[in-house]
UniProtKB/TrEMBL annotation:
It comes from the Eukaryota. It comes from Daphnia pulex (Water flea). InterPro entries: NAD(P)-bd_dom_sf, SDR_fam. Keywords: Oxidoreductase. Belongs to the short-chain dehydrogenases/reductases (SDR) family. GO terms for molecular function: oxidoreductase activity. This is Uncharacterized protein. PANTHER family: PHOSPHATIDYLINOSITOL-GLYCAN BIOSYNTHESIS CLASS F PROTEIN (PTHR43157:SF31), PHOSPHATIDYLINOSITOL-GLYCAN BIOSYNTHESIS CLASS F PROTEIN-RELATED (PTHR43157). It holds the Pfam family adh_short.
Amino acid sequence: MTQIGLLILVVLGAIKAYLILTTGVCTSTKKLTGKTVIITGANTGIGKETALDLAKRGARVILACRDPKKAAIAKEDIIRESRNKNVFIRQLDLTSLKSVRKFAADILKSELRLDILINNAGCATIEKKLTEDGLEVQMQSNHFGHFLLTNLLLGNVRIINVSSTAHRWIKKLNLDDLTFERDPSDNKILNIYGITKLCNVLFSKELAKKLEPFGVTVNCLHPGAVKTEIFRNAPTWFQIIAAVCIPLFFKSAKEGAQTSIHLAVADEVANVTGEYFSDCKIAKTSKLAKDLELAKQLWEVSETFVKLKPEERHF
């Protein structure tokens, strides 16, 4: 092996060691017996690992998933590994506002309580297209769908939104073009993904402010670069790069779920709200994500896009 090759191996090894040492782990042993949890996108990846962990803690876990067949397989796995039969499937397609409303109505009718809502589902690098509601598909799946869902289920519920460090890519947010039809610079699939993740942070900030008087907490998080199926719709060239980089530098789904689990169970964050977490601790956001006036304006625009009805408004 040449000296250059050896140096590359040493550098890669050092990077991998650093990633392992800095990966946050939820150390709480708290049980969730008697608690009800909803996790969107819980049939695979981070969502499934989060569901498994919370099921092991005794929670009643609702898997909110678009594909019932895939959800059924995940449910069987979770019940088998957790030995908790209180795992249920409810169909939810975040790219359909009709589906979101039906899901929420069914939950409010069938569930006696709801304690934790984890808005985990998301998509990335999907070709730009509009949903049946006339909204850009990544934007609706990652932001608008969860915005509506959360508003419909508001109550004494701990809310956890899975965002991403990708929000840092975005230096401006044009609230007049959230369908990405005007500004060419925003019309790229990776840029749209970053915008959706910025919206997750801004939504969390504004909702936390609105709910603070009621003692309800809202936080968001960056799970890390995680080996999941989120890039399954990416272009071939992107998947080739990912195939090389993911095994070396990405977390496993179980590692990626740790911060979501931490926010759901840890006593030390029980009264923390409006924060952004990474590796189970509070982290810094971009400057734009701290703009509370922008967060307020995004809320107002989002109400319009999802056609939030007067009876659905809590504020």
